[in-house]
Task: inverse folding
């Protein structure tokens, strides 16, 4: 079972497929690496595709500490270092986008490009309400919450880890470091998305220096599950050109 050690001793499970320039796919909250299964096979003929389970999810270690975006970005740095990957294209979905934003701002030399899927500049009231309801559900009926989340990592996450991910998402706010990001950036979100709306995607794009394109797909939040073919096509176009022409 392929795993690396983080700086604090936590284990991260990872997969590597394909050949070419490396691309790292960072899953969102409560999702393991399998959330990318439908996209990997469309990317790994052109790129070396790296996926992993964030700590506390799937086959990675559960840590008895606060899960912060800084900690999880540091985990990504450890992964790249131990795989001897000096730089990569970084793709983050939802909470994975929060990690990707922090990583791009603080490990700029390791980011060839940045793709943000269903992600936000800072958590908004609709997102806070959703996360608060999830937290209440974990207090009252955690099994029901797990059953309502088909993308959860085998529905086997510890409640403590789920709570930590909720807190990380609630605390997400990239305003203080967003202007540090210079990497060419692609922003993708869904037209049916209640939290990461068109307006939120535009707000994120406006705050960044080097956004090449903002794309809206006919999807909800789980772009890589709902429309993997279209998403992969858009990613490949961006990754191969780092620019779009309408």
Result:
């Amino acid at each position: 079972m392929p795993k690396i050690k983080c700086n604090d001793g936590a284990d991260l499970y990872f997969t590597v497929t394909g050949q070419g320039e490396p691309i790292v796919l960072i899953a969102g909250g409560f999702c393991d690496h399998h959330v990318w299964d439908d996209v990997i096979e469309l990317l790994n003929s052109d790129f070396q595709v790296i996926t992993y389970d964030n700590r506390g999810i799937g086959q990675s270690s559960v840590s008895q500490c606060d899960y912060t975006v800084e900690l999880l970005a540091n985990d990504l740095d450890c992964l790249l270092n131990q795989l001897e990957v000096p730089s990569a294209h970084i793709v983050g979905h939802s909470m994975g986008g929060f990690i990707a934003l922090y990583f791009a701002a603080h490990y700029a030399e390791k980011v060839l490009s940045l793709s943000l899927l269903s992600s936000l500049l800072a958590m908004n009231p609709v997102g806070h309400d959703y996360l608060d309801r999830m937290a209440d559900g974990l207090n009252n009926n955690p099994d029901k919450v797990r059953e309502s989340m088909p993308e959860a990592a085998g529905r086997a996450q510890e409640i403590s880890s789920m709570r930590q991910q909720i807190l990380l998402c609630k605390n997400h706010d990239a305003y203080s470091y967003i202007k540090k990001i210079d990497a060419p950036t692609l922003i993708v979100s869904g037209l049916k998305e209640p939290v990461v709306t068109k307006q939120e995607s535009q707000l994120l794009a406006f705050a960044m220096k080097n956004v090449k394109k903002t794309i809206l797909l006919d999807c909800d939040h789980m772009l890589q599950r709902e429309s993997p073919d279209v998403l992969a096509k858009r990613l490949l176009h961006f990754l191969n050109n780092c620019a779009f022409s309408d």
Summary: The two ends are 44 Å apart (CA to CA).
